[in-house]
Amino acid sequence: MSSLTDLSMLELAAKLASREVSSVEATRASLQRIAQVDPKVRAFLRVDEAGALKAAEASDARRQAGSPLSALDGVPLGLKDIFLTEGVETTCGSRILEGFVPPYDATVVRLLKEAGLPLVGKLNMDEFAMGSSNESSAYFPTHNPWDLTRTPGGSSGGSAAAVAAREVFGALGTDTGGSIRQPAAFTNTVGLKPTYGRVSRYGVIAFASSLDQPGPMARTVGDTAALFQLIARHDPLDSTSANVETPDCLTGLEDGVRGLRLGVPREYFADGMDPEVAGTLRASLEELEKLGATLVDVSLPHTKYALATYYLLSSSEASSNLARYDGIRYGLRAKDARGLKELYTQTRGQGFGAEAKRRIMLGTYALSAGYYDAYYLRAQKVRTLIREDFTKVFQQVDAIVSPTSPVPAFKLGAKVDDPLSMYLMDVYTLPCNLAGLPGLSVPCGFTQAGLPIGMQLLGRPFDEARLLRIARAFEREHDFFRRAAPV
Amino acid sequence: MALTLEQVRHVATLARLSLTPQEEERYATQLSAVLDAVAELESLDVSQVEPTSHATLASSLLREDVLRPSLPPEAGLANAPAKVGSAFAVPKILE
Amino acid sequence: MPLSDFQTVIGLEVHAQLLTQSKIFCGCSTAFGAEPNHHTCPVCLGMPGVLPVLNQRVVEYAVRTGLALGCTVKSTSVWSRKNYFYPDLPKGYQITQYDQPICEWGELVIDTPSGEKTVRVRRIHLEEDAGKSVHDASASAGQSLVDLNRAGVPLMEIVSEPDLRDADEAVEYLKVLRDVLVYLGVNDGNLEEGSFRCDANVSVMPKGSTTYGQRCELKNLNSFRFLKQAIEYEAARQVDVLESGGKVDQETRLWDVNKGVTRSMRSKEDAHDYRYFPEPDLQPLLVSDTLRDSQRQSLPELPRAKRTRFMGEYGLPAYDARILTAERPLADFFEACAKHVPDAKKLSNWFLGELSRLLKEEGTPLSALRFTPAQLGELLATVEKGTVSANAGKDVLGEMFRTGRQPADIIAEKGLAQVSDVGAVEAVVDDILAKNAGEVEKYKAGKKSVYGFFVGQVMKAMKGKGNPGLVNELLKKKLGE
């Protein structure tokens, strides 16, 4: 018999609506599951039991009164620790923000509260979202529920692991170069990186402002669509927030892929891909074809430059975004600093971890006098070429299909001392951020060893509904989301 | 291209990061490797290409010139490591 | 070579605080003088996760200023981040405009002893102000305090070309620019509170040379006097350096008010590398034709144009016209009064004389004047008619200034009216001449000096209220002149 926590968000929402289950029961079940498995998974940096139960009680009262705030009113959710939560410590996985209690809620957090969802806690992540394995968290690495010796991916690894381990029904993550999609692929969950500007960044701690985008992570495509619709709102507090209608992703969700043209970029099926991943992807493509989609061989010629472009641009922006952590207004302040200069250098030297320092150094160098044109400006121009690649291809196809990650979840510790090979984990995911496009990862199978494999779908700007529809058509043929992680 | 220790120290100064000698060594090596990797961009002719600084070119959002409530100072300073009255305190700034 | 063989070259960078209610990127108040950090929010405190949203009025004011100075207003300008660490800079970078400012290439005409001069304005750009670091007693030893009320206050930087050739020209440029900004209603022109600030780039070169010398940037020039003193000191200093075979280093120098010298601010070794790059949190700033046109239509008549018009329309001397047009309210009030006074020069005399004296002494702003243009017109007419003497008129104006009562009532109450009734005056004159027949003889015999005696006697008899014109006229007639 499946326990409460095995329900999808929409299944739970239905039981909440029919009063068969109360939000307090669902939230308690979630909290119990956390108590039971998180000592092994280590997805949570902090659990807000009191806050979650209080919100759950309020939700039940609304359901009682027949006035729920939304279809998901009462569904317990987890938040990556990058989202500011008023009154609840927010560290972004960094020592430098240890003990920081925000005076305000991120816009998406406010939207979730206004929709009545209890927020059970803050999820582990790579420090300042810089990483692909959750190992750069200043606190502890999160373990993959499918194999505790492996990484759940990153940087939203805590969110993915918590969802996969049934600790929460869904979660929010952020995606700067693949940080939602890659962990989703590593954990048999669904992750959507919306179009840049679709979801507000206000109150989301910045890594690379022109690339960051918050998004939903859940076990099913339907849950992902429902959660996406709650947070896809124009925000007057974010100048880069697109002033577009909130999409209806549920109505056409079951419409299938018949007649859709799906592009298969040859550059994404290059060497270095794990054979099991490659095989599973081929099979998935054939299935999509059987379901009525037309596969089109396409080319994104500048793909191989995306990695270099991404690391120059994201590190440059990060070096500036992380300048505010100086020990003056909040966060860590070096105890033994003598004088102002040392206050800065020691606070930042002690507060930032190795990966954050590495990127701050790279970005500072790329922007510094004499190097700007050679590195930052050139990268911005190549970014234009990469965008144009996609624009051309989307004149021929409705969406692009590829693997999410070239490999399945790797062993914890395998790549920590080799930043370059770690960066290579993101080759398929980061071009989408450079182009500002929506991207989604949906489970598409498992390796012999039982490690999840994800399929990535990329779409035109603001075409998330179509990506969800394609993902759903594929999901409907399988029961991957019914398969629980062996933890 | 290889980064010298002097360059690493200069960048660390710009970024206000105190680095141990070991870190200086490590970053010299690792950043040099990253810079070699990104050197592939030089093979592209981008002389005629416009740079992209924003993912979307939605026109700039403006706000009306109206007052919104400020934070109560106690909330704004709640996280301050050191304060005097309602001001943040820092080691003396030498002009 | 002596100092006189060198040419001073000056360019000014003016920072003008825009007169908005709220800050440039958040809704906090820009009001001056609040308790530390009482006008702050997550955005201007540089909290994690915050984002800037541009204040519309800031754009309108910059466009208005650009048009007034004849600049090209760019349809697209770009925000950049200027990266540096300082305790009063919460985000570790300042949001400013760098290589693509909102306005470029305008000009400002000033008066110099050798006539009109056109100073080129290279650029106008927008930026956020930093906070304030306090080093005073409130901080214990070895401590500085940071107040971020000013952080995010909107600033407009107006940069001139190095077209100014001496301290007086620089002062004149700064005064004219301030008058224009105040006229436009975009700035309050207050140097003391720092809402109108100026840095000066100063260099010297041998007269006749065409290549500028190495320049120094002078800061802390918060009055016109300091600007003049600092430039003159700095020019002389640079000449000394060159004369003694040295070279001038490009550096920022602080004007030391007490010592009356400029001194080097920053040591060479931490030369700045601001690592400017486009601000990813703000889209490029687009200025529509609609906005440009609406601002152009709402442009007021500017001081110089007004001055020229005053000279033409009212036939006023340049001196009067300049003073009357220096401030918009005064000019407007003058024009209102001129409708009631036929002789604009006489009106101007009253403005420059008695009225400005009263305004200064009573410290009343024009906006708070108690009397109307019509009342002033009535007073001047009465003086013109001779109903009251000019001196009495001043008392009446003073009374109007304080009470706003009708001039007629004041004159009546104080009995200031002059006797201008011919019969009445003639009677007194006849009486005096009759009483002093002897003196009349002497006068007729040629001793003209006694004339004054007759006037005195008549006035005495009339308790000083005889209309002087009429008294003279009748005396002369009776004495057979």
From TrEMBL, chain A:
GO MF entries: ATP binding; glutaminyl-tRNA synthase (glutamine-hydrolyzing) activity; transferase activity
Known EC number: 6.3.5.7
Alphabetic keyword roster: ATP-binding, Ligase, Nucleotide-binding, Protein biosynthesis, Transferase
One GO term describing the cellular component: glutamyl-tRNA(Gln) amidotransferase complex
Pfam family, one: Amidase
Residue ranges constituting the Amidase domain according to the UniProt record: 25-468
Keyword Methyltransferase belongs to the record: no
Family recorded in the similarity comment: Belongs to the amidase family. GatA subfamily.
Oligomeric and partner information: Heterotrimer of A, B and C subunits.
Entry protein name: Glutamyl-tRNA(Gln) amidotransferase subunit A
UniProt source species: Corallococcus carmarthensis
UniProtKB/TrEMBL annotation, chain B:
Ranges in a coiled coil: none
Molecular function via GO: asparaginyl-tRNA synthase (glutamine-hydrolyzing) activity; ATP binding; glutaminyl-tRNA synthase (glutamine-hydrolyzing) activity; transferase activity
Pfam families per UniProt: GatC
GO biological process: glutaminyl-tRNAGln biosynthesis via transamidation; regulation of translational fidelity; translation
Enzyme Commission code(s) on record: 6.3.5.-
Keyword Lipid metabolism: no
Keywords tagged on the record: ATP-binding, Ligase, Nucleotide-binding, Protein biosynthesis, Transferase
Catalytic reaction list: L-aspartyl-tRNA(Asn) + L-glutamine + ATP + H2O = L-asparaginyl-tRNA(Asn) + L-glutamate + ADP + phosphate + 2 H(+); L-glutamyl-tRNA(Gln) + L-glutamine + ATP + H2O = L-glutaminyl-tRNA(Gln) + L-glutamate + ADP + phosphate + H(+)
Gene3D superfamilies: Glu-tRNAGln amidotransferase C subunit, N-terminal domain
Keyword ATP-binding (UniProt): yes
Top-level EC class: ligase
Function statement: Allows the formation of correctly charged Asn-tRNA(Asn) or Gln-tRNA(Gln) through the transamidation of misacylated Asp-tRNA(Asn) or Glu-tRNA(Gln) in organisms which lack either or both of asparaginyl-tRNA or glutaminyl-tRNA synthetases. The reaction takes place in the presence of glutamine and ATP through an activated phospho-Asp-tRNA(Asn) or phospho-Glu-tRNA(Gln).
Recorded family membership: Belongs to the GatC family.
PANTHER family found in the cross-reference section: GLUTAMYL-TRNA(GLN) AMIDOTRANSFERASE SUBUNIT C, MITOCHONDRIAL (PTHR15004)
Name under which the protein is recorded: Aspartyl/glutamyl-tRNA(Asn/Gln) amidotransferase subunit C
Automatic annotation (TrEMBL), chain C:
GO biological process, alphabetically ordered: glutaminyl-tRNAGln biosynthesis via transamidation; translation
Entry EC number(s): 6.3.5.-
GO molecular function terms attached to this record: asparaginyl-tRNA synthase (glutamine-hydrolyzing) activity; ATP binding; glutaminyl-tRNA synthase (glutamine-hydrolyzing) activity; transferase activity
Annotated ranges, domain Asn/Gln amidotransferase: 332-479
Keywords, sorted A to Z: ATP-binding, Ligase, Nucleotide-binding, Protein biosynthesis, Transferase
Enzyme type, top EC level: ligase
Recorded catalytic activity of this chain's protein: L-glutamyl-tRNA(Gln) + L-glutamine + ATP + H2O = L-glutaminyl-tRNA(Gln) + L-glutamate + ADP + phosphate + H(+); L-aspartyl-tRNA(Asn) + L-glutamine + ATP + H2O = L-asparaginyl-tRNA(Asn) + L-glutamate + ADP + phosphate + 2 H(+)
Family matches, as Pfam families: GatB_N, GatB_Yqey
Summary of subunit composition and partner proteins: Heterotrimer of A, B and C subunits.
Primary role: Allows the formation of correctly charged Asn-tRNA(Asn) or Gln-tRNA(Gln) through the transamidation of misacylated Asp-tRNA(Asn) or Glu-tRNA(Gln) in organisms which lack either or both of asparaginyl-tRNA or glutaminyl-tRNA synthetases. The reaction takes place in the presence of glutamine and ATP through an activated phospho-Asp-tRNA(Asn) or phospho-Glu-tRNA(Gln).
Family classification: Belongs to the GatB/GatE family. GatB subfamily.
The protein's name: Aspartyl/glutamyl-tRNA(Asn/Gln) amidotransferase subunit B
Lineage of origin: Bacteria, Pseudomonadati, Myxococcota, Myxococcia, Myxococcales
